[in-house]
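>> Question from a student workshop board

For tomorrow's exercise we were told to take the sequence and the ligand below, predict the bound structure, and bring the output to class. My setup keeps failing. Could a helper post the expected result so I can at least see what it should look like? The ligand is 5-phosphoarabinonic acid.
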Amino acid sequence: MIEVNCDPKMDEARTAEILQEIAHDKMGGWLSLPRKFDMGEFVRIKEAAKKIQEESEYLVCIGIGGSYLGHRAIIEALRPKSETKIIYAGNSLSRRELDRALGKVGDHDFSVNVISKSGTTLEPAIAFGEFKKKLIEKYGEEEAATRIYATTDRKQGALHDEAVAAGYTRFVVPDNIGGRYSVLTAVGLLPMAVAGVNVDKLLEGASEAVDSVLEPAAKYAWMRFGLGEKGYDTEVFASFEPATAYFNEWLKQLFGESEGKEKQGVWPASVIYSTDLHSLGQFMQEGRRNLWETIIDYPTDETNAKVVQAVRVAHTEGGIPVLNIGVPSYDEMGFGELVYFFELSCAISAKLFGVNPFDQPGVEAYKEELRKLL
Ligand code: PA5
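>> Workshop helper replied:
Here is what the output should look like for this input. Compare the format with yours to find the bug.
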């Protein structure tokens, strides 16, 4: 079970009210998802993953933000074994990166999973255009269509319309789940299953978390809010496992997009120790005291555990609050639980700050400006 080492002042009635608000929110579908997963869809996801593994050396996962970070975070953390390797594309507008991804696929057999809830985001749309061309050149139009898996809205958007017209295999991003809360839907499950992640265990971990993380998640959320109110405006997620760097990236998106609006929120930053103790450690120890540190305490080896201990003592003495989130296991069950814990903490915390955890008007603003320019 996830444990947090803080005991903040909490208003239990407000917490209960917030949980009700989330449960009734039109974007609160992730709250009950692990226990209400559409098993028909789950079977289809696993069958598609098997087919991709049988016929492709590479799966190109095209998507950005919530349609990308969650599955990459877990795949990189667990480094599962699979003959089919994952390549990520469409997560920037760099031509250099796109060419690199195209070059990596080269003449190998490949399939494409294009993931976009809206179906209109520019970064994945451009990358998809390039990879679709490559598929058609290699396999012809008909077979190319059987190698494209589109994860998108149930009934609308450019990607949805194209997928229906061309007959791609389709998976749905549920209406009531936004991008950054969608890692446990087909958005994340298909790439993870192809990469060899045990998605049954992942969902089981999340399902157990539905009850078990309620208390630690509420405590952590109230602690964040209390620190924010005291003027701490930056939270540094600290991990001692380099393979979890992308989990930190997912966390930054989750908290940044959920809380950072209406001039509210805490800036989410991240470090990987002990590597960053030799770069950012100086600032953490003696720099401006506007931040706190949240250690994500994965089970680790003895030496690394000593580093965790040393950091905790040194940084506390250096005058920054140090929170600790104890993760029970470094496996699918543990990450399932962790994902749910952070989603819940984040939603409660955003509500405490008085903002809507589930919209992202600022991201939409950027997309709109870019559309005008291009
Ligand atoms: O969390 C979010 O809603 C965003 O980060 C989106 O996931 C991101 O902008 C990509 O959007 P889409 O899935 O519509 O392409």
